Amino acid sequence: MTPTTASLPEGVIFDMDGVLLDSEPFICKAACMMFAERGLTVQPEDFLPFVGAGENRYVGGVAEKYNFPLVIEEAKKRTYDIYLDIIRGQLEALPGVHTFLEKCRKAGKKIALATSADFRKAEGNLREIKLPMSTFDAIVTGEDVVHRKPDPEIFLTAARKLGLDPRRCLVVEDAVNGVAAARAAGARCLALTTTFTPEQLAGADWFGPNLAEAPVEVLCWP
């Protein structure tokens, strides 16, 4: 069956990290460097429980683990300063990103970006992978919501900005918190196994290693 403007989903909502690009090694390195500057040595695996929850929780959760006092906004700003410096010329789109976005457009889908990261990080990431922010009909960042994933607020907000019922939207995610948020929003979910295993992402409707190998039915539901 060929997708048409009348077919479901009517909208596709993309997470950013682990879906459009793989910034995890860079943001992890930046956060480790930020903590080191403050005299605390942390390990990359410390951040795993907080992947997909936004940098406030990403940094704050590790600080809590070590009972380390931290002014979150200052720590996050410094982490972003380091991050935006080290990704220059290093960050690339994951396989299939540009092609999949083009397929969405040709199939008449509205598209949104919904990332728990701040606007500053989203803008820097998209610039590095040569994807204009104007590509998206709506953009929602962590600064636009009160509750972070696994709360569904970010996806509900994105659907509302698209003018769509979230139940008629596909969410593309890679994180456990993100899949839970998509389910709570009532959306169907394509989980990419760039960060976690299918077993860890249980609850998603479809799985794929990246957008280049996404199941064809994700853009045309029966």
Describe this structure in words.
The chain has helices spanning 24-37, 55-65, 72-86, 97-106, 119-128, 153-162, 176-185, and strands at 11-14, 110-114, 138-140, 169-173, 188-192, 206-208. It has 222 residues and is an alpha/beta fold. The protein folds into two domains: 11-22 and 92-219, Rossmann fold; 24-86, DNA polymerase, domain 1 (Orthogonal Bundle). The protein has a six-stranded parallel β-sheet, with helices on both faces. Helix 7 links the parallel strand 4 and strand 5 (188-192). The radius of gyration is 17 Å and the shape is globular. The chain starts with 10 loop residues before the first strand and ends in a 14-residue tail after the last strand.
Low-confidence stretches: 1-5
CATH topology of the largest domain: Rossmann fold
Task: Round the Cα radius of gyration to an integer and report it.
Answer: 17 Å
CATH superfamily of the largest domain: HAD superfamily/HAD-like
Distance between the termini: 9 Å
Order of helices and strands: EHHHHEHEHEHEE
Topology:
Layout (H helix, E strand, L loop, with lengths): L10 E4 L9 H14 L17 H11 L6 H15 L10 H10 L3 E5 L4 H10 L9 E3 L12 H10 L6 E5 L2 H10 L2 E5 L13 E3 L14
Parallel strand pairs: 1-2, 1-4, 2-3, 4-5, 5-6
Helix pairs in contact: 1-3, 2-3
Features:
222 residues, Rossmann fold, DNA polymerase, domain 1, disordered N terminus
Give a brief description:
The chain is of the alpha/beta class. The chain is built from 7 helices and 6 strands.
